[in-house]
Specification:
Elements (H helix, E strand, L loop, with lengths): L1 E4 L2 E5 L5 E6 L7 E5 L3 H7 L4 H22 L3 E8 L7 H7 L2 H15 L3 E5 L7 H14 L6 E8 L1 H17 L10 H5 L12 E4 L18 E4 L9 H20 L1
Parallel strand pairs: 4-5, 4-8, 5-7, 6-7, 8-9
Antiparallel strand pairs: 1-2, 2-3
The structure holds ligand V0D.
Length: 257
């Protein structure tokens, strides 16, 4: 049960205890990145196939995106498929590649109504054409939207992203279009998938792994990191608000010194 006391949204655990959740008038992270881990483990615990975990994880995406939109987060970046995920069994990869279409077939209309802008980050090279097609349609149909920017990182790897940017700059130098001394952080950042996005303020990773796993390496230089043991399909908006409360606490402490 969430209830409001002034600006504070609090969780009412029982009659006596009010646990602060987060301050709606406080600093809401503008850009939140999420590593949605633990779908396979969630299924295994229930003796279900891994794909059932992925499907359940997709429901969580819907709930968390709605919650983020509701509190005024500007950008969400969801790590949906890493370059490492190709090593999984063929059947599982094939299933995962159908999720964008499935998600969009049920959600695109509502996302549009909510003024959400959808975008893909990552390398489309190895993705099946039906997956690319679904993403292209979503990007096209939501291009004019000015609300929440919802990014899905698909076939994304942070080091590869940096190498791609460096290769392009090297090409420009070789072509005589750019001087080496003109290369700075801002110019390199202009050649990343995230060129027009602010860096994430907060990273959420579920399922107990305490690593970045090659996600947005450049962009997370100053990001607050928040980890939980909760598996992604079990992750709720209450957990999400808890992460934001913790973020606000850190921002206040930082502001105090
Ligand atoms: C599986 C947990 C939504 C993580 C969430 C291609 C693993 C569910 C999307 C999605 C996946 C992607 C693009 C888009 C709309 C939705 C998704 C994949 C996996 C891998 F435009 N969930 N989701 N994509 N999972």
């Amino acid at each position: 049960m969430l209830e409001r006391i002034g600006h504070m949204l609090v969780r009412k655990a029982n009659q006596e205890e009010h646990r602060p959740v987060f301050d709606e008038a406080g600093d809401i992270p503008q850009h939140i990145a999420v590593i949605m881990d633990g779908n396979g483990r969630w299924a295994k615990k229930r003796n279900l196939a891994r794909i059932v975990g992925h499907r359940s994880g997709m429901q969580t995406v819907k709930e968390i995106v709605k919650a983020a939109d509701g509190i005024g987060v500007k950008t969400m970046t969801m790590y949906a498929f890493s370059t490492e995920n190709w090593k999984r069994p063929r059947d599982e990869v094939d299933y995962l590649m159908k999720l964008p279409q499935e998600f969009l077939s049920t959600e695109l209309e509502e996302l549009n109504e909510r003024n959400v802008r959808v975008r893909m980050l990552g390398n489309s090279d190895r993705l099946p054409s039906h997956t690319i097609e679904a993403m292209n349609i979503a990007e096209e149909r939501t291009r004019q939207n000015t609300g929440l920017q919802l990014n899905f990182a698909l076939n994304y790897g942070g080091r590869t992203e940096i190498v791609k940017a460096v290769t392009e700059l090297a090409r420009q130098v070789q072509a005589g279009e750019l001087k080496p001394e003109e290369i700075d952080e801002a110019l390199l950042a202009q050649h990343l998938y995230t060129r027009d996005l602010p860096d994430p303020d907060l990273l959420i990773r579920t399922s107990g792994e305490i690593r970045l796993s090659n996600f947005m390496l450049w962009q997370m230089a100053y990001t607050e990191l928040w980890f939980t043991d909760v598996l992604w399909p079990d992750f709720t908006k209450e957990h999400f608000f808890e992460a934001i409360a913790e973020y606000q606490g850190r921002a206040r402490r930082y502001g105090a010194v």
